[in-house]
Q: What sequence folds into this?
């Protein structure tokens, strides 16, 4: 006996009742019900230690487990682990097998055997028994001694064969003496199984007791003479041998060798394998004889079946099974068998709709009640079903031996409660990961969690507390938005009796029939009595007979075997992934369940799933090829079929080798852990097919996967990619990930960053030797209307293909067409193939459309649906209408296995249509037109021939109530309609996008405003929760129609639906457009109207308010991406709002300045009047002091200005502060968005206007300076400050920007600052501090650019000046500027111990704190950049600027250089290595420190993947950069 007596580490007396429960479950391994009794009786350690067996029995624990618990308790108290004297196999016996052994081998009276069985004496309990324990069970001393003696003898014997017992003669139950003759009779057995499984032991080696079945039928078989039974057994053994011989005789020579190979390694049997030597040279006859001699006929049969399936000889296995089934039937007693003859076939039909595959249903829902471990071992079939959810009423299901526990050993299941199914359908689906992973729902408590909410309830309390949640859950499951009626099957799996209607399981059944047809519910039940009671309840309470929908005469073993034999079949050797050293590892189903985001391509994809000589395989090949060449999506099967037939290879596009080479080069040469490669392609020209073809051929070198859903969070995708990389191997393997049809170039970069981060967070500590394998290559397929131009912008990390074929490709396509004509009946219908082959020949496509629409009639439903599809497929990529919605549109009753019925209804358009499986929402079927060019041509033909415009079709869709009614499955259809109305495309050869979606653009050009507005108004009434529709209408009205009041009404409506940066920005943009329009009109007018000024200032005020609110939301919202999910196509893509609000504020302010500059007394053309405007805006003079002509117009202007005085006077300050903020953004942060580039240009132009208005000294000032020398100093100071501001050097940020400008500019600036420092004319202390800090920085920048300039001060001078400033401001200054200077000037010097400034650590903490406080809203998730780096020289010479480093790469393309900086590869270049100083340091607790003697200075890693996780303390070295939020460590290298 093997057991552990170790419990929790504390002494037994200190155990809580939870510790006792845990010990019973994990160490003693009793059934959960026993352990629960101890918890209910509040048995803690101090009680348990004094327990005797009697105390345990008194609590209601059966005698068998009580003896076992007592034995373990004694061992625990003694601190010993006794080796018991009985053999190990006895421990594995069930209580039924103990019963069989006692009757068949020990030959005790049946009453003693039954007494032990009744008291749950299984093998693991029996080995703990002593003589007294048997006596306590009223076994006499003689039999008790005999039992223990026979038990000891088993040590020297093989495990005895145990036969199932159907019925034992009642003679043996007599007491000794009453019927001595019968006492010597052996127990009789009869064979009642309907299949050979009953002649053979179950797979676990345990024979199942059949007494229960026979008794339920109330059939008793008369005893037969022993001799007859023996001869029958021998006859059966001979028959089994002959059947095995017959099956093996059909094997070819190579197949027999393969059979021998698997036979010598067979490990599922308890007996040793047959040695290889014994099998050599054996033919089929001898092999069968050897197997039956070695294993016995029963086990030999089972092993033969297993190996035949393993070597892909399923037909032979099925034939053998069938033959053995007939043999079993011949051996049955006809009087006993009263089973329904075709229950196995009936089960298949119920689960497959009359087919052979479980694919007939999209999802299964299982309702199950309490189970026993004996039942659970026969429920493996659950792991094969595509389970949506399991409603489990067994609180012990998740504990050891429970059904949920068993399922989770091989598959993933998320554990839920019914209450979690409350809320919006799409939110519940997303939050609970439905469709992707099984939801296991505990409907009446969980015993593994100790809380009130998880307690098991009696029926009364369940009805009160849980029933409503379960009813809501059932309603959710039956919602056609979740699972389609007819494509789901609900299975009630009754593993224990439902005695009365007062049972939660019966209430659940009643809930289901409220929401779905009875025909959708199947009952599976092993116990006849349980079934009869269940059937009776339903007939009585629901008035329905479930007999035709029930399986009740098969054992669980038979049910399991029948379902496991159904398709789709798994690969016998498992799905394989490449691993290190050209090896392969098995991809387990459970691991695949975890990686829901990835469609994984395996080494042996498609292999050994079908018998490739069968008609089934030939039919599959034909069907898959036809679908693809007609225009369906490519499948891995397409490549597999072509690989199998080398004479008919898959067409290789000319760019195939280029793409393959690009991937291999990046994998080999790139030092970056994750690399993004782009494949730009014309829509429909085969870009995705090319990418998948390359991936298929690289599956030996990479672990390959396709991203299923672009909308998934990038962090989730990254963690799953990381899992794939490390799966089943100590060393990582490179991953190739295909991302198809990503709309934004920024999105994949987000994924790259997340993969980098996942590498750190996921404890991926990589040895240097493994680094080349730790690579992720993302191949990003991007639809583009100008693929060649986009390719040129992304060389060398991209490729492209267009719709035009090369001559070589043309020849390959023509050759393939000839092949298809030989193997397919109607290759002329392969439209997708022919369109690509013809390079999208418009004449051919137009003729197809013209011929097909010959008899078009829009009053017919089929014609309407075809027109709807043409509209959608032309304007929205990857769009479709779900099959179920199409069926509803036709008013059809859904038929489980006939999806083609819709295509039948759609004739004559069926040839142009195809049915695809859509990944989202659990994988539903959608219908679409084969190719978008056909859809486009059909729309043109409809308009030309039938005057059916796109606007008419759009309105028809929006007016169809069915599409928008509750309970109709819409899926992506609703999103596609919105997308068609609002999604804008990029202009060809430009970064900008079209102002409106292509559909709205076309309708506007053909029919104008009224039709466009009608469509948007109707759409808005349909999509009441979408802000995008009213937002798009507002944009249309203000951009195209200049109807600003109406536009504002719709913009406000959008904002009220969803207040986010984008809706507020639309309001701001609308006002800006209005203000620009007014300004333009007023420029043309010669007369002045003061009321125009009043109107314009109000508009400007509203615009600035909207822009500021938009920016405020952008700065504070944590999840901008979620907020803007359906608004991304309006003005900006997701997460790109950045600083648009600031830009809007500046644009409005300068429009106001321009409007004011045209007023009679502020005219910019007159220097004096311009000075008045400047002075007024700077609050130097009030409006009443401005010189003007005294007339009504001017007086009204003054009144209006006074009315809005606060707004106008705040503008200059607002503008100045906004410039400083955006300067920080562009100077301190990594910027790579095209929108940022555009904004930067806008801001530069606006700053020129600012300089022109506020930073020029009028001629009058110069004249005054000459006439009044006393004003000279004041004017000198003012003019220098104006010069500094004009050159953007009045801020710390602006001076840093001069690192990339001519040295002459910063030299003059430094001279001006020196003049100001000398005269010390400051308004206040704050100005003094700011200008002193700027003076120090200007000196440093000047030194970097022109070290020999006479204006550069010495390091000592600058250091002293900075120290004085730092003493004044301390460590709490609101700006990081002085602490940045402290890092530059006081950073320690190598090999100069004692000279370092010990305050440097304080300055680092101070810069981090003030940068966070001042710039947090700008930084958010963005990275800062260093402008200066630590070089190898001394003094100020050691500071090296980024532009100086870039000088080494003059000849390199800017985008290539930017990529080197982005991924850190720049630091591998010799020029950089020679220039920069490598700092020594450590990593402690995940933090990086620079080390100088005893000084440790905290530093941040510049790249997210710079440090390993695991919190290992390591020595490192790195290059140092100085950023505004502290020092950054670049290119971190581990010393060891």
A:
């Amino acid at each position: 006996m093997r057991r552990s007596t170790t419990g929790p580490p504390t002494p037994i007396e200190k155990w809580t009742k939870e510790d006792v429960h845990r010990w019973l479950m994990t160490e003693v391994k009793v059934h959960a019900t026993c352990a629960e009794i101890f918890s209910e009786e509040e048995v803690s350690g101090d009680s348990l230690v004094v327990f005797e067996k009697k105390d345990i029995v008194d609590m209601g624990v059966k005698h068998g487990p009580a003896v076992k618990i007592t034995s373990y308790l004694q061992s625990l108290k003694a601190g010993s682990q006794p080796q018991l004297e009985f053999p190990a196999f006895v421990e594995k016996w069930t209580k039924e097998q103990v019963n069989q052994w006692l009757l068949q081998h020990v030959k005790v009276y049946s009453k003693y055997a039954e007494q032990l069985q009744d008291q749950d004496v299984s093998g693991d309990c029996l080995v703990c028994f002593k003589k007294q324990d048997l006596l306590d069970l009223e076994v006499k001393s003689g039999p008790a001694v005999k039992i223990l003696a026979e038990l000891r003898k088993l040590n020297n014997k093989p495990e005895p064969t145990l036969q199932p017992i159907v019925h034992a003669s009642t003679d043996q139950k007599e007491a000794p003496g009453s019927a001595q003759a019968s006492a010597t009779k052996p127990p009789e057995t009869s064979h009642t199984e309907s299949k050979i499984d009953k002649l053979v032991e179950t797979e676990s080696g345990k024979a199942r007791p059949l007494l229960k079945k026979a008794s339920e039928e109330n059939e008793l078989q008369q005893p037969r003479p022993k001799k007859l039974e023996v001869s029958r057994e021998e006859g059966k053994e001979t028959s089994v041998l002959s059947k095995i011989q017959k099956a093996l005789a059909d094997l070819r020579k190579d197949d027999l060798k393969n059979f021998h190979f698997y036979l010598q390694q067979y490990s599922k049997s308890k007996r040793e394998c047959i040695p290889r030597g014994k099998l050599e040279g054996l033919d089929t006859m001898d092999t069968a004889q050897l197997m039956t001699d070695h294993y016995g006929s029963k086990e030999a049969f089972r092993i033969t079946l297993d190996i035949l399936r393993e070597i892909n000889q399923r037909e032979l296995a099925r034939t053998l099974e069938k033959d053995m089934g007939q043999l079993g039937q011949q051996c049955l007693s006809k009087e006993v068998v009263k089973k329904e003859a075709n229950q196995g076939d009936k089960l298949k039909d119920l689960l497959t709709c009359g087919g052979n595959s479980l694919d007939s249903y999209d999802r299964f829902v299982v309702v199950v009640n309490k189970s026993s471990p004996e039942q659970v071992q026969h429920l493996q079939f659950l792991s094969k079903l595509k389970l949506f959810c399991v409603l489990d009423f067994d609180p012990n299901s998740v504990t050891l031996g429970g059904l949920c526990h068993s399922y989770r050993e091989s598959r993933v299941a998320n554990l839920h409660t019914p209450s979690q199914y409350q809320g919006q359908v799409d939110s519940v689906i997303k939050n609970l990961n439905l469709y992707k992973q099984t939801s296991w729902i505990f409907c009446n408590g969980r015993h593994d969690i100790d809380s009130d909410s998880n307690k098991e309830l009696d029926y009364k309390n369940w009805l009160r507390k849980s029933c409503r949640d379960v009813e809501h859950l059932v309603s959710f499951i039956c919602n056609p938005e979740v699972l389609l009626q007819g494509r789901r099957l609900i299975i009630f799996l009754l593993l224990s009796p439902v005695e009365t209607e007062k049972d939660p399981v019966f209430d659940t059944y009643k809930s289901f029939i409220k929401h779905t047809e009875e025909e959708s519910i199947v009952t599976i039940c092993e116990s006849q009595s349980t079934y009869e009671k269940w059937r009776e309840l339903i007939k009585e309470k629901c008035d329905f007979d479930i007999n035709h929908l029930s399986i009740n005469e098969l054992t669980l073993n038979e049910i399991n075997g029948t379902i496991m034999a159904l398709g789709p079949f798994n690969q016998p050797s498992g799905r394989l992934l490449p691993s290190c050293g050209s090896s392969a590892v098995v991809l387990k189903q459970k691991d695949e369940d975890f990686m829901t985001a990835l469609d994984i391509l395996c080494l042996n994809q498609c292999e050994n799933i079908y018998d490739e000589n069968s008609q089934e395989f030939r039919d599959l090949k034909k069907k898959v090829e036809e679908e693809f060449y007609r225009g369906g999506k490519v499948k891995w099967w397409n490549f597999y079929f072509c690989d199998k037939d080398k004479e008919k290879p898959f067409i290789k596009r000319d760019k195939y080798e280029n793409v393959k080479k690009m991937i291999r080069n990046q994998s080999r040469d790139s030092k970056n852990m994750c690399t993004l490669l782009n494949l730009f392609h014309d829509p429909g020209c085969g870009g995705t097919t090319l990418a998948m073809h390359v991936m298929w051929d690289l599956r030996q070198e990479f672990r390959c996967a396709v991203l299923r859903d672009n909308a998934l969070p990038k962090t989730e995708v990254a963690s799953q990619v990381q899992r794939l990389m490390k799966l089943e191997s100590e060393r990582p393997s490179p991953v190739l990930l295909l991302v198809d049809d990503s709309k934004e170039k920024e999105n994949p970069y987000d994924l790259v960053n997340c993969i980098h981060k996942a590498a750190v967070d996921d404890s991926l500590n990589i040895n240097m030797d493994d680094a080349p394998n730790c690579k992720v290559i993302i191949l990003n397929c991007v639809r583009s209307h100008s693929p060649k131009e986009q390719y040129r912008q992304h060389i060398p990390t991209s490729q492209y293909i267009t719709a035009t074929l090369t001559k070589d490709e043309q020849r390959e396509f023509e050759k393939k067409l000839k092949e298809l004509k030989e193997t397919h009946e109607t290759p002329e219908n392969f439209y997708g193939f022919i369109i690509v082959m013809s390079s999208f020949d418009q004449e051919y496509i137009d003729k197809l459309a013209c011929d097909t629409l010959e008899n078009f009639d829009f009053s017919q439903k089929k014609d309407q649906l075809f027109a709807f599809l043409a509209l959608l497929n032309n304007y929205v990529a990857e769009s479709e209408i779900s099959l179920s919605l199409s069926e509803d549109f036709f008013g059809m009753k859904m038929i489980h296995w006939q999806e083609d019925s819709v295509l039948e209804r759609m004739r004559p358009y069926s040839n142009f249509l195809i049915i695809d499986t859509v990944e989202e929402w659990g994988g539903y079927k959608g219908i679409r037109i084969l190719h978008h060019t056909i859809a486009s041509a059909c729309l043109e033909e409809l308009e030309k021939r039938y005057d059916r415009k796109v606007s008419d079709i759009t309105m028809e869709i929006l007016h169809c109530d069915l599409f928008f009614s509750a309970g109709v499955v819409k899926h992506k259809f609703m999103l596609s309609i919105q997308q068609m109305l609002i999604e804008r495309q990029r202009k060809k050869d430009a970064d900008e996008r079209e102002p409106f979606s292509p559909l709205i653009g076309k309708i506007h050009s053909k029919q104008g405003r009224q039709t466009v507005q009608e469509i948007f108004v109707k759409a808005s009434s349909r999509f009441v929760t979408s802000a995008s529709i009213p937002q798009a209408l507002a944009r249309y009205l203000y951009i195209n129609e200049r109807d600003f009041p109406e536009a504002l009404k719709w913009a406000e409506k959008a904002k009220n639906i969803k207040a986010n940066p984008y809706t507020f920005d639309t309001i701001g943009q609308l006002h800006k457009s209005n203000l620009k329009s007014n300004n333009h009109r007023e420029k043309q007018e010669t007369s002045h109207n003061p009321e125009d000024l009043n109107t314009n200032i109000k508009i400007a005020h509203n615009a600035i308010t909207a822009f500021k609110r938009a920016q405020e939301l952008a700065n504070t919202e944590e999840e901008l991406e979620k907020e803007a999910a359906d608004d991304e196509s309006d003005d900006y893509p997701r997460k790109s709002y950045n600083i648009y609000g600031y830009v809007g504020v500046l644009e409005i302010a300068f429009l106001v300045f321009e409007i004011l500059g045209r007023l009679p007394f502020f005219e910019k053309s007159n220097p004096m009047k311009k000075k008045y405007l400047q002075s007024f805006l700077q609050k130097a003079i009030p409006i009443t002091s401005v010189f003007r002509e005294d007339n009504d117009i001017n007086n009204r202007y003054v009144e209006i200005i006074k009315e809005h005085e606060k707004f106008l006077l705040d503008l200059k300050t607002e503008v100045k502060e906004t410039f400083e903020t955006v300067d920080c953004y562009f100077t301190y942060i990594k910027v790579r968005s095209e929108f940022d580039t555009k904004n930067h240009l806008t801001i530069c132009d606006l700053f020129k206007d600012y300089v022109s208005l506020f930073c020029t000294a009028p001629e009058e000032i110069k004249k005054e300076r000459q006439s009044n020398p006393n004003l000279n100093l004041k004017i000198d100071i003012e003019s220098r400050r104006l010069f500094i501001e004009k050159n953007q050097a009045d801020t710390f940020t602006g001076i840093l920007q001069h690192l990339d400008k001519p040295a002459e500019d910063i030299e003059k600036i430094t001279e001006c600052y020196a003049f100001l420092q000398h005269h010390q004319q400051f308004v206040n202390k704050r100005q003094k501090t700011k200008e002193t800090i700027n003076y120090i920085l200007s000196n440093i920048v000047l030194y970097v650019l022109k070290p020999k300039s006479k204006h550069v001060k010495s390091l000592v001078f600058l250091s002293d000046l900075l120290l004085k400033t730092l003493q004044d401001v301390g460590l709490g200054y609101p700006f990081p500027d002085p602490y940045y200077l402290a890092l530059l000037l006081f950073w320690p010097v190598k090999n100069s111990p004692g000279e370092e400034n010990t305050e440097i650590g304080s300055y680092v903490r101070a810069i981090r704190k003030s940068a966070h406080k001042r710039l947090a809203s700008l930084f958010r998730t963005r990275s800062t950049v260093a402008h200066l780096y630590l070089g190898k020289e001394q003094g100020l010479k050691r500071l090296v600027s980024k532009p100086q480093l870039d000088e080494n790469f003059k000849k390199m393309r800017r985008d290539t250089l930017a990529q080197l900086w982005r991924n850190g590869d720049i630091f591998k270049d010799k020029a950089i290595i020679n220039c920069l100083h490598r700092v020594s340091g450590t990593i402690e607790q995940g933090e990086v420190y620079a080390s100088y003697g005893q000084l440790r200075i905290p530093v941040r890693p510049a790249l997210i993947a710079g440090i390993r996780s695991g919190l290992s303390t390591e020595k490192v070295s790195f290059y140092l950069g100085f950023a505004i939020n502290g020092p950054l460590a670049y290119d971190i290298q581990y010393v060891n």
About this structure: The mean pLDDT is 82. The longest strand covers residues 1514-1523.
